[in-house]
Write a structure and sequence with these properties.
Pathway: Porphyrin-containing compound metabolism; protoporphyrin-IX biosynthesis; coproporphyrinogen-III from 5-aminolevulinate: step 4/4. Pfam families: URO-D. Residues 19-28, 142-158 form the Uroporphyrinogen decarboxylase (URO-D) domain. The protein has helices at 5-10, 31-37, 42-47, 49-62, 78-82, 104-112, 117-135, 148-157, 165-173, 175-199, 216-240, 260-263, 279-286, 305-318, 340-355, and strands spanning 70-71, 88-90, 94-96, 141-146, 203-208, 249-253, 270-272, 291-296, 326-330. The chain has one domain (5-355): Alpha-Beta Barrel (TIM Barrel), CATH 3.20.20. The protein has a seven-stranded parallel sheet with strand order 1-4-5-6-7-8-9. Strands 2-3 form a two-stranded antiparallel sheet. Helix 6 (104-112) runs parallel beside helix 10 (175-199) and helix 9 (165-173) packs across helix 10 (175-199). Helix content is 50%, strand content 11%. It binds coproporphyrinogen I. Coproporphyrinogen I (1CP) binds next to strand 3.
């Protein structure tokens, strides 16, 4: 490994500066992404290891020396696909499930589905292995998956949502079946994450992007127990699979402000924060139990250099300076229209500010 900064930082070690990466650092804001994708179907692009590895490496190449990790180009919706559900990505509209889970019979079909990860998601492992080879030790590679509740949202809603009426109906009308579905998703997530490590992933992130849609009480019932299972079972499975190194795991539960204290004890090495947090508050609540990651509002990238500097400086300082228990990121992903040069400036500022004695 030429650069293992993020692996050391994620384990809580003291580091020379905070490692930097950005959620959705690959994708639509990069002109080279559009060039390579060339109007092809999104999932077809993911399944082509050569293309997916190229897209994964694009930001690392563009921001040479500024990014300390790559994240494999794929999507959280590949687990529903592995559970036998059809998922499309419609340009300009987002994910679409032609047959979402709406009835008990639909749910039973998913529960009865015999998942064969290597048949359904073999391409994901090939893509990770090839990307690792191409990265040649430049930076560590993230594997990832969607958290069970967030995936259940897509599987019941059939796509993105504003009201979350179908997902909420499932939790409140059929809590027992909802738990069975969440458990099935969890089991697949544990195996999928573990096999991503076998294929070459060196650090993992679990995306609970719709965590903030739950009440605190429902988060405790429908999200947290499954997040905890993932954190506990992946290391055990990795041991069984003969992996000797510790593989750090990050959890990102967007807008789940009420859950930070519990997430710090959920078994993860790193807790990633959205931008609603004042880092000082989060640092106090965490009290050095885990490494924190985040949390600049990506919208700051639309600002002047002075504003980017000012807000980045506040962030890094408020997280304690960045030499321990901190990883730089945005509070959520990049936007398609963002200026690549502004993102470069942000990363340069993180290096400058984070390296200061
Ligand atoms: O650099 C990277 O991060 C690339 C890999 C990646 C990841 C980690 C992609 C590529 N998607 C994801 C995770 C993902 N996908 C999440 C969790 C993170 C988050 O909260 O943003 C979620 C919720 C999805 C679902 C999804 N897939 C959406 C959001 C729709 C909604 O409901 O709001 C969208 C638009 C996609 C498609 C997708 N996935 C990735 C990209 C680059 C795209 C856009 C594809 C395109 O239009 O070209």
């Amino acid at each position: 490994m030429k650069n293992d900064l993020i692996l050391r930082a994620a384990k809580g070690e003291k580091v020379e500066r905070p490692p930097c990466w950005i959620m959705r650092q690959a994708g639509r804001y990069l002109p080279e992404y559009h060039e390579v994708k060339a109007g092809r179907d999104f999932f077809e692009t993911c399944r082509d290891a050569e293309v997916a590895s190229e897209i994964t490496i694009q930001p690392v190449r563009r921001y040479k020396g500024l990014l300390d990790a790559a994240i494999i180009f794929s999507d959280i919706l590949v687990i529903p696909q592995a559970l036998g559900m059809e998922v499309q990505l419609i340009d300009g509209k987002g994910p679409n499930f032609p047959n979402p889970i709406r009835t008990i019979e639909d749910a039973q079909k998913v529960l009865d589905y015999k998942v064969d990860l290597f048949t359904e998601l073999g391409w994901a492992f090939d893509s990770i292995t090839l990307t690792r080879k191409k990265l040649n030790g430049d930076v560590p590679l993230f594997g990832f998956c969607g958290a069970p509740w967030t995936l259940l949202v897509y599987m019941t809603e059939g796509g993105g949502s504003r009201l979350f009426n179908y997902a909420k109906e499932w939790l409140n009308k059929y809590p027992e079946v909802s738990h069975k579905l969440l458990q099935k998703i969890t089991d697949v997530a544990v195996e999928f994450l573990s096999q991503q490590v076998v294929a070459g992933a060196q650090i993992l992130q679990v995306f609970e992007s719709w965590g903030g849609e739950l009440s605190s009480m429902d988060f405790n019932e429908f999200s947290l127990p499954y997040l905890k299972q993932i954190a506990k079972k992946v290391p055990l499975r990795l041991k069984e699979l003969g992996i000797k190194e510790t593989v750090p795991i990050v959890v990102f539960a967007k807008n789940s402000w009420y859950a930070l204290d519990k997430l710090c004890d959920a078994g993860y090495n790193v807790v990633s924060l959205d931008w609603s947090w004042d880092p000082k508050e989060a640092v106090k609540i965490n009290n050095n139990r885990v490494v924190l990651q985040g949390n600049l509002d990506p919208g700051v990238i639309y600002g002047s250099d002075e504003i980017i500097t000012q807000k980045t400086e506040y962030m890094i300082t408020a997280f304690g300076g960045g030499k321990q228990n901190y990883i730089v990121n945005f509070g959520h992903g990049t936007h398609p229209g963002m200026d690549t040069e502004k993102i470069k400036f942000f990363l340069q500022e993180c290096h400058r500010i984070g390296s200061r004695e």
